User: Fold this.
Amino acid sequence: MEWLESFWATYSTLVLSIGTNVLLALSIYLTLATGLLTVANAAFMAIGAYTAGVLTTQAGMPFFVALFFGALTPALVALLMGGPTLRLSGVYLAMATLAFGEVVRIIILNAEGLTGGALGLNGIPQLTHGFDVGLTVALTLYVLLRLARSRFGRAMTAICQDETATELMGLNVRGYKLFAFVLGGALAGLAGGLNAHFTFFISPNEYGFERAVEILAMGVLGGTGSPWGAVIGGVLITLLPELLRGLGHYRPLINGVILVVIILYSPKGMWDIVRRLRADLRLPVVN
Amino acid sequence: MLPQQIVNAVSLGAVYALFALGFTLIFGVLNVVSLAHGAVFTIGAYAALKAVIVLQLSLPMGAAVAMIVTAAAGWLLDKLIFAPLRARQAPHLAPMIATIGVAIVVTSLIEGYSGPENLRFPADILPANAVTVGAVRITGLELEIVFLAFALMAVLLWGLKKTRFGRALRAVAESPKAAALMGVDVEAFFRVTSMIAAVLGGAAGVLIALYTNAVFPHMGQPMLHKGIAVVILGGMGDIRGALIGGLFLGFAEVLSVAYIGSTMRDAIAFGLLFIVLLLRPQGLFGHAAHRRA
Assistant:
């Protein structure tokens, strides 16, 4: 088992990042699959990270409790915000959530007493281990896979395809949208809480527009056909920059290229490619 | 104190309006929210800066270079992104996501090519003279910015209202199908609109670069956010709204910095945007759209 230990010593941060990024990808999958383009996930992640971080460093709470509130707080914020904003359609919703993200960042920057302002929150105990992340991802994935095949998942797809028709079928469209939005907020917050407890340090600028775009890139790259798509997106977007370290300043380029290429050439994402390949090979389809 | 603030607000607001005008034009005609508009703005600023420093051109020539470069950028943007998505009749969120990608690509190309640092125009190239009226001091630069911004906007408004070209463009904005039936080359108008919008964005980039004397790879991003706030304020696709919204944001920012404090300056735009979206999503001057199935 020696190789495993040395592997873990070198790559533990990368593996943990993959885990939290998959959670983030799953969080945006929920809204994307419901036909909502929201880019507030980075802000929810920030709220979760700061809530959990402040609770462990300043209030001395146990890790588990901090994580719980790290997921609950953004979910409550999403619930409050979702009521009025989810009435907006398409591009307006995207822009409202974009603005919301910036407002959250500015508030964190200015609430120096609690968050450390621009200097960030330092000395967060390193409590996140591979086990926590692995378990959280596995549980979340299981729940979302079940959800996708339930009444909820079918409603999501229906809303994504034709909102008006879905409403005419008597489905509570706003309720389903709000549920997807709030659950996505909770997942992003959970990812933020986990992430904060292995990076040691968080600052408001980590959760700006670039992070929001990165999360969006994961969701779009993987595709919204299945939660597995989000997993593919999360893993690839985390690994690609590592493989392309030699690019230097050009590294963020990759996220941009992925967004453009996927939208232009394969708008249904990687999952659709995988599924088609599998259909061609006549392998049994799981989902 | 107040008259001085008004001068600052008008010069800043004029640039915001200029930027937002391009943004709203693309939405009005192409029905696309181009989140690459901030990147075009950055391209404009860098093109002018490089023309002035590397090619040793004068400032007006640098601005002209910036407009040519951004027009080319607008052409490319339509050719490579908008046109293929139009042809496929992609859902309206597709171009929005694709232009986010374009913005990242452009920004990191600029950062990789020119470095992340803040660049400046050489000091001797900026107009140094200033006009003093009572207690108000207006720099030559501010005068030029306001003049150029309003001149560009006036040309655009006149062109849209009075010329054959403008009538055709408005017809395309109203209904591409009907315009095509009337013999308008709709595709060409889409492409030209993308170019005009890019030139407006690039010009705004040059003006802001001169006004703040700072050129850096990510300068387009806060501007994009402000542009979004302005067009939401004025109503998406509403030319007059973009004008008034831009000036309004200029005033809101300058006055809040003067009387509340600078920390909340950036929150102003987003706070406004948020409130308008929640209370009057059609914009301050718009009419509510009827939803059709």
Notes: Chain A has one domain: 2-208. The interface with chain B takes residues 37, 84-85, 87-88, 90-92, 94-96, 98-100, 102-103, 106-107, 109-110, 164-165, 209-210, 213, 216-217, 220, 247-253, 255-260, 263-264, 267 of chain A (CB under 8 Å). Chain A has 13 helices and no strands.
